[in-house]
Design goal:
The longest helix is centred in the middle third of the chain and has 28 residues. The chain is built from 3 helices and no strands. The termini are far apart. The chain is an all-alpha fold and about 80 residues long.
Length: about 80
């Protein structure tokens, strides 16, 4: 692990202290869990954003083969 210092507002520190008391977890553990949760949610959103921007990107291309015909030739009769 890498040691990192952060500044918290009085309200953030008080809230974190309350969570420490309520959960019995260490302050550093709660901060790491919060960061992990943030990274998970933003990664999902970023992935969804990239996928959404790719929708229809080949729609107007006319240099691609006819995929339906190719797929039908693979079907077993």
């Amino acid at each position: 692990m890498v040691r990192t210092q952060i500044y918290l507002t009085e309200e953030e520190r008080a809230g974190l202290g309350a969570l420490v008391e309520a959960t019995g977890k260490k302050q550093a553990q709660l901060i790491r869990e919060a960061i992990d949760r943030l990274l998970d949610t933003t990664s999902d959103r970023r992935c969804a954003s990239v996928l959404n921007s790719a929708i229809g990107m080949w729609r107007d291309r006319n240099d691609l083969p006819d995929f339906n015909a190719a797929r039908q030739s693979w079907d077993r009769s």
